[in-house]
């Protein structure tokens, strides 16, 4: 959850720049990644739910792999 808070703060900072007008393609590309929130845009409860679902999916994958061996 700390990562989400950090990412939101950096998103706020990055969106304050007119980065689409930058001439350096590498810098523009970095800003394009920073200005997409993704899952961190969700409210805390929903983000926790997504995190829990991802954890469950990973547990199921591991179980399935063990059974195949």
Automatic annotation (TrEMBL):
Q: What species is this protein from? A: Portunus trituberculatus
Q: Which InterPro entries match?
A: Peptidase_M2 (IPR001548)
What is the name of this protein? Angiotensin-converting enzyme
Q: Does the keyword Glycoprotein apply?
A: yes
| Family label | Belongs to the peptidase M2 family.
Keyword annotations for this protein, in alphabetical order, are: Disulfide bond, Glycoprotein, Signal
The answer to keyword Glycoprotein applying to this record is: yes
Name the Gene Ontology biological process terms: proteolysis
User: What cellular component GO annotations does this protein have?
Assistant: membrane
Pfam families found in the cross-reference section: Peptidase_M2
Q: Name one GO molecular function term.
A: peptidyl-dipeptidase activity
């Amino acid at each position: 959850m700390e990562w989400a808070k950090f990412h939101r703060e950096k998103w706020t900072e990055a969106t304050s720049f007119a980065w689409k007008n930058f001439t350096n393609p590498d810098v523009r590309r970095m800003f394009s990644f920073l200005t997409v929130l993704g899952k961190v845009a969700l409210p805390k409860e929903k983000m926790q739910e997504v995190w829990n679902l991802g954890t469950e999916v990973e547990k199921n994958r591991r179980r399935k792999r063990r059974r195949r061996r």
